[in-house]
Design a protein that fits this description.
This protein has 439 residues and is α+β, with helices and mostly antiparallel strands. Helix content is 36%, strand content 23%. The radius of gyration is 31 Å and the shape is elongated. Bound molecules: zinc ion and manganese (II) ion (MN). The site of zinc ion has 8 residues, from loops. Belongs to the GatB/GatE family. GatB subfamily.
Length: 439
């Protein structure tokens, strides 16, 4: 029996724009007093009209471009209807068949390409808070988050292990942070993960696919890994026990309990037709001109993988380059690039000293580098090479020595001291100079 997991990921990212997606309320809702950042639009009051946030649209296009998507010239918003207490309008403004961005990809370090199906724009819902008041179980609703701009990134089911899924997620996280559209702070719910998983089982009977399972709202990379691993095992077991295979109607939604480390059934999954999507009548369609796309493309900074390979080209080890890029150590990266033009500085060594905390890039880098990499006074082979080089480059002085001017030995020692920044023993140098001049 051969088992191949098929894992796709939906990632929701909250954008850090000043205002919400369709109104002027502040988008920064974290820690604010409940229901203090609302208006008729984001409360979904009748007659209120949404106006799209240009900055949010630009951010969505940036994400799409960074993920190698094509930007669709014609786009529109759609209404996705579903009832939920924190969705005041009874529908979410999202994008259905004409998203801003589609058909991109992201490369894993192995070279494997993970397809990106779409990157679309939508709005966040409010937040429910389940609590107890006067001995009664109640649910409170806070609409501060309602209407905050969201971007949804949907991958193809191209990942075959939890490790690949984790690498994909980390790369998405890094790209989002690098292009500056969101801090993607998972603890604040700014990046939410939803893996969809099923398993391809090959046995004597042929090839079988287990039913699709979507796991909702995971807020850490490690929980995503655990949920995926649990689900792969559970689905194989379920197949062995029941023989149930994937059909058009048996997709389900599960939650992940990070304490018990299990997934649990939430509901059978709605299909697209259940949402009764239709074009949002209050927002005209978008025509996105090439000029506009090119303007946005030019605003993109060097992406993490590009930055890593530019460091590697200077000779920096990949593992060090990855640390510098993932910790967004801009200063160190800049210094390595600047100093790589200096022959005496080895970028590989410089990067490694910074990554290992031996060199602080915010202080005098050159002085630190020189003192950290100075020649050891006891290293005779290094000293021999230095003295030999001085002899080779000063044939006139050597000629004088051969004529009997033995005091030129002092000149060679002086040069060698300079070269080693005074770290070599003059005694050893004098020995070496005499030996090499006479050889
Ligand atoms: Zn509002
Ligand atoms: Mn969504």
């Amino acid at each position: 029996m051969k088992i191949t997991p098929l894992i796709g990921l939906e990632v929701h990212v909250e954008l850090e724009t000043k205002s919400k997606m369709f109104c002027g309320c502040p988008a920064d809702h974290f820690g604010k007093a409940p229901n203090t950042q609302t208006c008729p639009v984001c409360l979904g009051l009748p007659g209120a009209l949404p106006v799209p946030n240009k900055k949010a649209v630009e951010s969505c296009l940036k994400i799409g471009l960074a993920l190698n998507c094509s930007i669709n010239r014609l786009s529109k918003f759609d209404r996705k209807q579903y009832f939920y207490p924190d969705l005041a309008k009874g529908y979410q403004i999202s994008q259905y068949d004409q998203p801003f961005c589609s058909e991109g990809f992201l490369n894993l370090d192995s070279g494997k390409k993970i397809g990106i199906e779409r990157v679309h724009q939508e709005e966040d819902t409010g937040k429910l808070q389940h609590t107890v008041l006067n001995g009664k179980k109640i649910t409170l609703v806070d609409f501060n988050r309602s209407g905050v701009p969201l971007v949804e990134i949907v991958s193809k089911p191209d990942m075959a292990s939890s490790a690949e899924a984790k690498e994909y997620l980390k790369k998405i996280h890094e790209i989002i942070r690098t292009i500056g559209v969101s801090s993607a702070d998972m603890e604040k719910g700014q990046m939410r993960l939803e893996p969809t998983i099923n398993v391809c089982i090959e046995n004597e009977g042929g090839i079988h696919y287990t039913p699709l399972v979507e796991i909702k709202n995971i807020n850490s990379f490690n929980f995503a890994v655990q949920a995926i691993e649990f689900e792969i095992k559970r689905q194989v077991e379920e197949y062995e026990n029941t023989g149930t295979e994937k059909s058009l109607t048996n997709k389900t939604t599960r939650g992940y309990d990070s304490v018990k480390k299990v997934t649990f059934l939430q509901r059978t999954k709605e299909e697209a037709k259940d949402y009764r999507y239709f074009p949002e009548p209050d927002i005209p369609p978008f025509i996105i001109e090439d000029d506009f796309v090119e303007k946005i493309r030019k605003e993109l900074p060097l992406l993490p993988d590009q930055e890593i390979s530019s460091l590697e080209k200077l000779g920096v080890e990949k593992k060090d380059a990855k640390v510098l890029v993932s910790t967004q150590n801009r200063l160190a990266i800049q210094i390595i690039h600047d100093y790589s033009r200096d022959d005496r500085v080895d970028p590989r060594k410089l990067a490694s000293l910074i990554v290992n905390g031996k060199l602080d890039p915010s202080k005098d880098t050159k002085a630190q580098y020189d003192s950290l990499t100075k020649v050891g006074i006891t290293d005779k082979s290094v000293l021999t090479a230095i003295v030999q080089k001085i002899i080779d480059t000063n044939p006139n002085v050597v000629a004088e020595y051969k004529k009997g001017k033995t005091n030129v030995v002092g000149f060679f020692i002086g040069q060698a001291m300079k070269e080693t920044k005074g770290t070599a023993s003059p005694l050893i140098l004098s020995e070496l100079v005499t030996k090499l001049l006479n050889s």
